[in-house]
Specification:
By secondary structure, the chain is α/β, with parallel strands linked by helices. Helix content is 33%, strand content 13%. The chain has helices spanning 21-24, 30-43, 103-119, 136-145, 160-166, 182-187, 195-205, and strands at residues 3-7, 13-18, 123-126, 151-154, 172-175, 191-194. The protein has a six-stranded mixed beta sheet. β4, α5 and β5 form a beta-alpha-beta unit. α2 packs across α3 (103-119). It is elongated.
Length: 207
């Protein structure tokens, strides 16, 4: 069972915490991590792009000129793709881009991402993260104390003061244990979580 140092908001080490091998000691499956990121990005696509094919463009019901004797190339319709205002070849149509992953694959990918943060020493556990007021400057001070430029900050429960204080800090995003995803874990590089949040993650994702 791996362990990690627990720090306070001033960046000082105040203890250690044992981590579940099922969540933070999993085998890193890069293939599943890649699929999870692809599924996340695909799910963000609206899939509403649409254009008309030659059969859907109005007009062009007759030949623009006779087949032979004009000196022009033969043409069957002014709505053919080579004409201005004509239909689009292989026109995009509304479609569903979503990629399906089953629950075991999603969990394995997430545990792989969490394990990689621990292995790369990019997991920071705090004893608590509380601010007495909504103040971006105070949150930035906490990040400086931890020597971090950006991070995905995971809270055990929603804290208005912390969430609003971190909202305008570049490279920082707040989340709850049940809302984290592989894409954000990799995107923000560092993972900062309170001790209570880590316990909740282990409870949610432990098998």
């Amino acid at each position: 069972m791996a362990s990690v140092a627990v720090k306070n908001m001033q960046g000082a080490e105040v203890g250690t915490m044992e981590l579940s091998d099922a969540v933070f000691g999993a085998k890193v499956n890069e293939h599943l991590v890649k699929l999870s990121v692809q599924a996340f990005l695909a799910g963000r696509r609206q899939g509403t792009q649409s254009a008309k094919t030659r059969s859907e463009v109005s007009g062009g019901g007759r030949k623009p000129w006779k087949q032979k004797g004009t000196g022009h190339a033969r043409q069957g319709s002014i709505r053919a793709p080579q004409w201005t205002g004509g239909g689009i070849v292989f026109a995009p149509k509304p479609r569903d881009y979503s990629i399906k992953l089953n629950k075991k694959e999603k969990r394995a990918a997430l545990c792989s991402a969490l394990t990689s943060r621990l292995q790369e020493n990019k997991l920071v556990v705090l004893d608590e993260l509380k601010l007495d007021e909504i103040k971006t400057k105070k949150f930035v001070e906490v990040m400086k104390n931890l020597n971090l430029d950006g991070a995905l900050v995971v809270l055990a429960e929603s804290d208005k003061n912390v969430v609003l204080s971190a909202r305008n800090v570049e490279g920082v995003k707040t989340a709850l244990p049940n809302t984290i995803n592989v894409y954000d874990i990799l995107k923000y590089g560092n993972l900062v979580a309170t001790k209570a949040a880590v316990e909740k993650m282990e409870e949610v994702y432990n098998g």
